[in-house]
């Protein structure tokens, strides 16, 4: 929820979404905070709907990596709730940014859950598999992503099946090998009586 002062400015038509967007793009912390009305719970306050409600999420899409880092250092929650289906890791994966790998590493370093669920109940590994992003698949696997995790809706697929269904054979192979290694490490499952 925006603080009362921010809400009043937005309601009165004094809010400038272009200025706020440009401040995000520049990574101008002071300007972003000022344009939001200096909320006491920044950066976990709600932003204006016109620019996305979640400060960190908007920064993931539009701000330089150092600004994303500053938000995380100030306590931005990398596991923010997101009703639109793009928690922090999926937001980073969904961008065309060339530095998205760096952003994912940063989010993970600040505690983003590797098994976040988002659009289509995808984990980040599902999303990377569906995009045939081998570099991201390797990065996520290195951080403990589960190649055998199933979605809870639609086709109930694993990241392996997402890659196979799209005929991404190299990605599917990498994921299968990771899944086999994970199963070997966890050992045999006890028999159920």
Would you kindly provide a written description of the structure presented here, covering whatever features stand out?
- With 193 residues, this protein is mainly alpha-helical.
- It folds into two domains: 1-77, Alpha Horseshoe (Serine Threonine Protein Phosphatase 5, Tetratricopeptide repeat); 84-188, Serine Threonine Protein Phosphatase 5, Tetratricopeptide repeat, CATH 1.25.40.
- It is 52% helix and 0% strand.
- It is built from eleven helices and no strands.
- It has helices at 4-11, 17-26, 29-35, 55-62, 65-73, 88-94, 100-109, 124-130, 134-142, 159-165, 169-186.
- α4 (55-62) runs antiparallel to α5, α6 (88-94) packs antiparallel against α7 and α8 (124-130) runs parallel beside α10.
- The longest helix has 18 residues, at 169-186.
- The chain is elongated and about 65 Å long.
- It starts with a helix and ends in a 7-residue tail after the last helix.
**How does the overall form come out from the CA principal axes?**
elongated
Proper CATH architecture of the largest domain: Alpha Horseshoe
CATH topology of the largest domain: Serine Threonine Protein Phosphatase 5, Tetratricopeptide repeat
| Main β-sheet description | none
The count of β-strands is: 0
Our Rg estimate from Cα atoms comes to: 19 Å
What is the CATH domain class of the largest domain?
Mainly Alpha
């Amino acid at each position: 929820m925006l603080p009362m002062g921010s809400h009043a400015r937005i309601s009165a038509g004094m809010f400038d979404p272009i200025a706020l967007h440009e401040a995000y793009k520049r990574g101008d912390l002071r300007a972003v905070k000022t344009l939001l009305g200096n909320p006491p719970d920044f950066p976990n306050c709600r932003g204006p709907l016109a620019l996305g409600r979640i400060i960190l999420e908007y920064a993931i899409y539009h701000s330089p990596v150092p600004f994303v880092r500053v938000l995380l250092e100030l306590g931005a929650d990398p596991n923010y709730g997101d009703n639109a289906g793009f928690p922090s890791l999926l937001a980073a994966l969904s961008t065309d940014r060339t530095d998205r790998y760096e952003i994912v590493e940063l989010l993970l370093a600040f505690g983003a859950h590797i098994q976040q669920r988002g659009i289509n109940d995808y984990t980040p590994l599902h999303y990377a598999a569906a995009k045939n992003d081998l570099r991201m698949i390797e990065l996520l696997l290195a951080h403990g992503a589960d190649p055998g995790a199933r979605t809870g809706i639609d086709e109930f697929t694993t990241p392996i099946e997402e890659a196979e269904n799209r005929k991404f054979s190299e990605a599917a192979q990498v994921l299968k090998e990771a899944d086999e290694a994970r199963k070997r490490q966890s050992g045999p499952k006890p028999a159920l009586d």
